[in-house]
Amino acid sequence: MRYRVPQLLQSRSRILTLLLILGLAVGIPFYAALWYAQYGPASPDLQKYLAHHYPFLSSSVSHVDAPTPILSLLASESPLLHPPPNPLPPPTCAPIKSLGQVEPSKLPPLLLSLHIFSNARFNAQFAKLRRNIIRRTILMGVPHMYRHLVEVKFIMGRSWDPAQETLHDREEKNSGDMIRLSMPDGDGERGKAAEWMRLVGGQRVAQWVVKCDDDVIPILPNLIPYLLTLDPTQPTILGSSFHNEPDKWPHFSKKMYGFSWGILRSVTEARMHDDEKHRFIEEGRYIGVMMNSLTSKPGHPPIAPGSIAKVPTRPVSPDPRTGLIWADVGRRISPWKDYWTVKASSALAWYGMENDQQYEETAMADIIREMHDAGRKYLWDVPDDLKYLACKP
């Protein structure tokens, strides 16, 4: 009897081995067929995968087949034809309200116009509380004498609830810092980025217009000096490709990105159809499509519709056709309390605060503490060559 137990175990082992072999014999061809169907040689997804993970294998996989771009942008003027003032002119130092009914485009130009996407539909009360926190904290990092160089606006759609719209209208009247957009789905993703860009491009001129979500803390003492290293007269998009998967179009994360003024003017003047503006594409990818649809720079032939066959999986900067500069800041825009989080002393923004306490009492406190530990105040150190822009409060 004692000899039967090893034999029984041995027979069970053989059965398990046979089942394993059978599973591999069936599974490997099956999943290989699925993989080939999805990533076969004719599929751009395989090319994307190889180009992203194994760029040394072949130069032929560094480009992928691209969809048709937003072609109507190709009929607009080059962003190079709409540079903002650089350097900025001496300020008037007059309060904006005292200027009366002046067209926004006639107001003194800004260094930075910061636009925060807020929500008008879901958790309306929570969104308002978050806006109030941002209003009292966002400019802490800018000296009072230079706050006129930075504008903060909240970008919102419309609510389907009349009672909520009444509250929003009252808040807009009291604060004066809200821009309302009209979109087919009220305040969803469809068309918000395009409507925003086209509207803002006809508003007050700024060297840089930066967008972020309301769970993002832009660290202005670091962001403004970084912007000053760039040339606002050149068509530039800034943002982060960190954590981005390779896509049919190069793009940046939607959490925070920005443009030099010429790009906004070019998009504003383009004749875009509603179906182009309201395409259901993730925001970051949609902006990538728009950037790759800009018209050619002067001296370069325009692209004929349908002639774009391949585009790089990662941005080429500057773009040889448009001259577009992709200013990729990488991990300097990073999630808060993550393994990859960059120290506040060098980060441009943190994001991912789930509630107001995390935003104001924890994350903001962490930023101020880390900058103090690095021997810095949470305050933009204005360079000497910009001190002529000071206005006494």
TrEMBL record:
- Transmembrane ranges? 15-37
What residue spans carry the region label Disordered? 168-187
Cross-referenced InterPro entries: Glyco_trans_31
Q: Which GO terms describe its cellular component?
A: Golgi membrane
Q: Which UniProt keywords apply?
A: Glycosyltransferase, Golgi apparatus, Membrane, Signal-anchor, Transferase, Transmembrane, Transmembrane helix
Matching entries from Pfam families are given as: Galactosyl_T
Recorded topology in the membrane:
Single-pass type II membrane protein
Superkingdom of source: Eukaryota
As for subcellular location, the record says: Golgi apparatus membrane
Annotated GO molecular function terms are: hexosyltransferase activity
Give the similarity note: Belongs to the glycosyltransferase 31 family.
Q: What is this protein called?
A: Hexosyltransferase
Organism taxonomic ancestry = Eukaryota, Fungi, Dikarya, Basidiomycota, Agaricomycotina
